[in-house]
Design brief:
By secondary structure, the protein is α/β, with parallel strands linked by helices. It contains 9 helices and 10 strands. It is globular and about 40 Å long. Mean pLDDT is 94; it is low at 33-37. The structure holds 9-methylguanine. InterPro entries: DHP_synth-like (IPR045031), DHP_synth_dom (IPR006390), Dihydropteroate_synth-like_sf (IPR011005), Pterin-binding_dom (IPR000489).
Length: 283
């Protein structure tokens, strides 16, 4: 177990990270709702978030740009159009702690004004203007390792050093860049970025060696829910990956994860709490 600071200030919320928490995924990309209608989609999003909160999610992560392998980028205007009404409604109607999965400076500024409590950037603030925008929001930021862009990142990824070293070095460099620009480390989280420019073997090794990330001394967020590493090892389609994902969540908690980004909140909360009960006993 790593010792990270217990509380993270997320806008008007304080997130207790003295034990592992679950972040529920809320995708608001056009393919994520069965009905194309705008009003229905907003209502669906709200009901889905409400259910995840009732099941024990501490954070709702809203994303308006798909980061799946092969996905094409969307314009800032289109992303904002998808995300802003959902963030506003989640804050106003549910008083939820909302994280926004974005790499876009305009989106960061806008959602902070709407009451979002965290930024989740799979590009670790390396887009032009993103670092300055994130600093201006005053919100905590999750920095994630990736190699390549979603469009092409899974085309034969390779590394010259062991994957865990590549990940630690990259994240240490991004943390240093943030601190040099004035983003205090109290506002940072790190994420090894499972599936982002990594083969199945890279992902499995990275989870095995994830304790290496403890040297960064920052809260660790991980996302493996329904990812293809589960599908490939177990030969399961996406709708049959929950048991594999729960096993990975338990291992991630044992290796120091403090936030688990998942689709299936209720079973994940149980898996995380059960794992934590065992680990706590060993303290
Ligand atoms: C948006 N997104 C998709 N997968 C993710 C992961 O593994 N970590 C984080 N932080 N965000 C992710």
């Amino acid at each position: 177990m790593t010792s990270t600071s217990a509380f993270l200030t997320c806008g008007r919320h304080r997130l207790d990270l003295s034990f592992p928490r679950v972040m529920g995924i809320l995708n608001v990309t056009p393919d994520s709702f069965s009905d194309g209608g705008r009003h229905v989609a907003l209502d669906d999003a709200l009901r889905h978030a409400e259910r995840m909160l009732a099941e024990g999610a501490a954070i709702i992560d809203v994303g308006g740009e798909s980061t799946r392998p092969g996905a094409e980028p969307v314009s800032p205007a289109a992303e904002l159009d998808r995300v802003a009404p959902v963030v506003e409604a989640l804050v106003r109607e549910l008083d939820a702690l909302v994280s926004v999965d974005t790499s876009c400076p305009e989106v960061m500024r806008e959602v902070a004004g709407l009451g979002a409590g965290m930024l989740n950037d799979v590009r670790s603030l390396d887009r032009e203007g993103a670092l300055a925008a994130a600093i201006g929001t005053g919100l905590p930021v999750c920095l994630m390792h990736r190699q390549g862009e979603p469009r092409d990142m899974q085309q034969a990824p390779r590394y010259d050093v062991p994957i865990e070293e590549a990940v630690v070095d990259y994240l240490a460099e991004r943390v240093a860049a943030c601190e040099a620009a004035g983003l205090r480390r109290e506002r940072l989280l790190v994420d090894p970025g499972f599936g982002f420019g990594k083969t199945v073997e890279h992902n499995l090794r990275l989870l095995n060696r994830m304790e290496r990330l403890a040297e960064l001394e920052l809260p660790l967020l991980v996302g493996m829910s329904r990812k293809s590493m589960i599908g490939k090892v177990l030969e399961r389609p996406v709708e049959e990956r929950l048991p594999g994902g729960l096993a990975l969540s338990a291992l991630a908690v044992e290796r120091g994860a403090r936030i688990l980004r998942v689709h299936d909140v209720a079973p994940s909360v149980d898996a995380v709490n059960m794992t934590w009960a065992v680990l706590k006993e060993g303290c």
